[in-house]
Amino acid sequence: MYNLTINGKSYSVDVPASMPLLWVLRDVVGLTGTKYGCGIEVCGACTVLVNGEPERSCDMEVKEAVGKQITTVEGLSPNRSHTLQLAWIAKQVPQCGYCQSGMLMKAAALLRQTPKPTDAQIDAAMSNVCACGTYPRIKAAIKAAAGIAA
Amino acid sequence: MTIHQNAPDPTTVSRRTLIGQGAAAFAGLAIGFGPEMAAAKKGSGGGSGSGSGSGSGSGGTTTPTGTPTTANVGGLVGTYVGNWLLIGADNTVTILCGSQEMGQGIMTGLAQVVAEELMVDWNQVKVEHAPAGNFTYADPAMRGVTGGSMSMRGYYQGLRVAGAKAREMLKMVAVARFGGSLGNAVAASGTVSVNGQTATYGALAAAAAQQTPPSSPALIGNGRLIGRSVARTDIPAKVDGSAVFGIDVRLPGMVYAAVKHSPVHGGTLSPTYSPATPSGTLKAVNIGTAVAVVATNTWAAKNAVARLTPSWILPVGATDIDSAKIDATAQTLMASGTPLNAELLGDAEGSWAGSPKRLEMTYAAPFMAHATLEPMACTVLYTPGQSCEVWASTQAPPSVVGVVTKLTGLPATAVVVHPMFMGGGMGRKFETDFVTEAVKIAMAVPGKPVKLTWTREEDMTHDFYRPMALSRVRIGLDANGQPTSWSNRIVTPSILLRFGVPGTMVDSQAVDGAIGLPYAFPSKRVDYVRHTTTAPVGFWRSVGHSYNTFVVESAIDEAALAAGVDPLLFRQRLLAASPRHLAVLNAAAALAGWGTPPPAGRARGIAMTIGFGSIVAQVAEISAPTTGALTVHRISCAIDCGIAVNPDQVTAQMEGGIIQALGAAMWSRITFAAGRTVQRNYNNYRMLKMRETPQIAVTIVQQGSPIGGVGEPGVPCVAPAVANAYAKLTGTRFRSLPFFPNAGTMGEDEGEDD
Ligand code: FES
Ligand code: FES
Questions:
Q1: Is B377 touching A (CB cutoff 8 A)?
Q2: Which of B103, B330, B369, B661 has a beta carbon 3.0–4.6 Å from B715's, enabling a disulfide?
Q3: What lines the ligand 1 site, CB under 6 Å?
Q4: Residues 6+ apart with CB under 8 A from B227
């Protein structure tokens, strides 16, 4: 039994120690906003925040998550009011939308560390894959959220 | 604005559609297009649906012809006024979308068309996927399947008429209530005003549903919504995790499945193979094409199935699916295969032989995976002898109904398909292989909903790949550098063979983008030689155009350089009699500043394509920082898609197509070794990332053309435009895709070698 703190709420999960946080979130806790894309830490679809840092949850064992603050896209804001969510809607970022949870979490971590990132910093941080090709809009939305002129 | 709920509680599931479909409708006897439904019954709409296990899936009352009149769609209860809209008492309008949403914004686009004529404001509009398998909701062209960039083309006119009919039916009721005449009744912002009184659509809907629809209502749309970049209705749910994709479905009591396919393509299991249940799981099932394990979560299922080592029965020649062998066969077929002629004008080969300057080039394109970010996923609840309910990310809901009836023996009336948001389709989710598997697994755990999720490895190694192609182009030039002949011989496997098109016929998909070119060649010959490999092939975004445009536009560029003519001018001359194409080409050139020299160290290349009813031209501006490397700085894109219903979404489709195509041109490829797919995950199937993404500028050319598609046409020009720029800059010509096959790995962050 592991006690997890996800989006400020406590959960007890009875799963093997090595089960990746991704599958705990999706199949056990029922927070399906965090996506499975590759399972090998390449695509970033599974990105969540662990104590504010972006982590690829497909390769984080549940036991490593105990005692840490886990934030998923569902916890970004209670009502789509996070500046990034507003910017994502304003710039009409998502296409299929599948990568966007991971993108938003990565962007949230970026702006927390670097409130006014340069283009190069955005490029370096946003290493997740979007198969639909929404990168230009993601970049524009991050800049809008950061209050940087396009 | 959308109504897809988050599903953290396993007792809830977001229901995309709660409407069953009638057998008669599915049999195709009643292909309705427009609000022909008149009778209405008041009904509760069915409440929370069958996820609780009733399995009926029918959330609406149904007329004897199988047409729902009231329904609960995604939690909304209202009254149908015509088949396509459901008007709630609160005056919200739910428009049903017959196409499946995979990121192309089609739910929004089709709703704009209805709402334009219906005279409602955009903020009143909600959109839901229409009931699957009910051809009442299918456009005549695609019959409910989403693909071929057909949705807007297939639905546009019909939906305008549908919106107009519903508007007139609402007006009829207002006139009956308030007096006055139809001619004086004014519909605006979801109300009808007549004879000094006004009523909302919500108040008129129930009675309006009983009116006989006018046969040819006036179309009064004036661009209030059509042509406007309204916000997409599905986007808010895609920024907070609440959008429910096929892979996200959760049902009470649900179990989870994973599969392992034969590592060698085509392998199957002996019917006598009966795997024991691995410890920590619920069941192992032999489903013929794969072994499946069912467990209490996906992770347990996939780990357990990975450990099973069944023996596979391989078809004869299975290990011939091998890149070296396939390439060698392609060379042989190029030299001596029997061609089927796809296009003929004059004596192209004779003209070529007699031309003072003769060019001959051979181009190659690899197999490619779809690599949609959401792998294949499907949830099925099978109740023996009663019903089967399917939740799937599918481009082909009607085919899903067919799969279920065939496997279960249930009538179509007992089958309910819930098309879910797709995490990318790209042509892969047109196939129903994963649905077949999920249904078979569900039949082994009757009464329990089971979700099958393919791992990325299964997804990439068991795709229906974009076929490889080997093409040889011959161009004759006269003494003035003008083309005398054009010949293109294409060796490629047939996609349509699998769908019953005989190998003795030209596969239209194989030559799409190679025939019907707008260029005025005095003689033409396009031949097709079917490659006989049994590697599984399918529809990949832009299909034949994805390699044929690379070949055609590279070859034309080579001819221009050989003739010493600017590549834009060379094309302009050949398009003198095609003003529409010329306008698009010129628009892209102008956007790119073709007439001005590029910055030092850079070069530009141009390409154009026609297909899916649209014309696209693109200019790539590149540099080559070091030998063997290439940076694309900017792609300028012009598109003529006739009517741009939502210009921002046309732009988004161009952006996305360009980005996907650039990754494909640079790095992506699938190879086979002794029957197995070599690339197993994104780490060796490289796609474009943000830091490699060029600036993209899009201009929409409006010149009164017929409506065209936008999902695919952004793809084909990228590879040739970049190759043409690279040849200009370096003198080296890429004749083989991808350009950098040895840089095809992708890591978590930095570190990929370019
Ligand atoms: S699923 Fe974790 S990085 Fe791809
Ligand atoms: S929006 Fe589809 S993968 Fe990014």
A1: no
A2: B661
A3: A 36-39, 41-46, 56, 58
A4: B643, B644, B645, B647
| Domain hosting residue B539, numbered range | 323-368+465-730
Question: A53 with A109: CB under 8 angstroms?
Answer: yes
Class of domain A2-74: alpha beta
CATH number (domain holding residue B167): 3.30.365.10
Residue B603 φ/ψ, nearest 5 degrees: -145, 160
User: Scanning every residue of chain B, which has its alpha carbon at the shortest distance from the alpha carbon of A25?
Assistant: B8
Q: What is the mean pLDDT of residues B117-141?
A: 76
Find chain B residues with C-beta within 8 A of A123's C-beta: 690-691
Q: Which of the ligands is closest to the CA of residue A56?
A: 1
Q: Check A134 against B655: CB less than 8 A apart.
A: yes
Give yes or no: residues B293 and B385 share one domain.
Answer: yes
Q: Is A97 in the pocket of ligand 2 (CB under 6 A)?
A: yes
Cα–Cα distance for residue pair A36/A137, rounded to 1 Å = 22
- The answer on pLDDT for B105 being more than 90 is no
Highest mean pLDDT pick, B107-111, B427-431, B492-496: B492-496
Residues of chain A in contact with residue B748, where contact means CB-CB under 8 angstroms, are 41-42, 44, 56, 127
Reported as a single tens digit per residue, the pLDDT across B372-390 is 999 999 999 999 999 999 9
pTM score, two decimals? Answer: 0.91
- Cβ-in-10-Å burial (0-12, 13-18, 19+) of B293 comes to buried
Per-residue model confidence as pLDDT tens digits over B50-88:
222 222 222 332 222 333 344 444 444 456 565 677 888
For strands B469-477 and B450-453, give the pairing.
unpaired
Contact predicate A40/A30, CB 8 Å = no
- Strand B61-62 to strand A69-71: parallel, antiparallel, or no bridges (unpaired)? unpaired
In CATH, which of 1.10.10.10, 1.10.150.120, 3.10.580.10, 3.30.720.120 is domain A83-146? 1.10.150.120
- Look at the block and give the residue holding tokens 């009064």: B220
Mutate to test the interface with B, among A29, A36, A143 (most CBs of B within 10 A): A36
Query: Does the distance separating the beta carbons of B423 and A97 come in below 8 Å?
Result: yes
- Tell me, yes or no, whether B561 and B674 share the same domain: yes
Reported as a single tens digit per residue, the pLDDT across A69-110 is 999 999 999 999 999 999 999 999 999 999 999 999 999 999
- Domain locations along chain A: 2-74, 83-146
DSSP string, B363-432: EEE-BB----SS--EEEEEEETTTEEEEEE--S-HHHHHHHHHHHH---GGGEEEEEPBPS--TTGGG--
Q: Is A135 in the pocket of ligand 2 (CB under 6 A)?
A: no
Q: How many CB atoms lie within 10 A of CB B318?
A: 19
CB of B245 within 8 Å of any CB in chain A?
Answer: yes
Q: What are the residue ranges of helices labelled H in B42-184?
A: 106-118, 151-178
* Bridge partners (DSSP) listed for residue B50: none
Of B239, B455, B693, which has the smallest distance from its Cβ to A136's Cβ? B693
Ligand nearest to the CA of B682: 1
Chain A CB contacts of B422 under 8 Å are 96
The minimal CB distance from A39 to the residues B103, B250, B456 is found for: B456
Q: Are B447 and B276 in contact (CB under 8 A)?
A: no
Amino acid identity of residue A86, one-letter, is L
B515 plus B557 within the same structural domain: yes
Residue located nearest, by CA, to atom 3 of ligand 1: A41
Q: B10 to chain A: which residues are within 8 Å by CB? A: 30
- The two tokens of residue B392 are 């799937």
Spatial CA neighbour of B22 closest among B53, B68, B55? B68
Residue in chain A nearest B236 by alpha carbon: A89
Contact residues on chain B for A144, CB-CB shorter than 8 A? none
Beta bridge partners of B96: B128
Q: How many CB pairs under 8 A join A and B?
A: 204
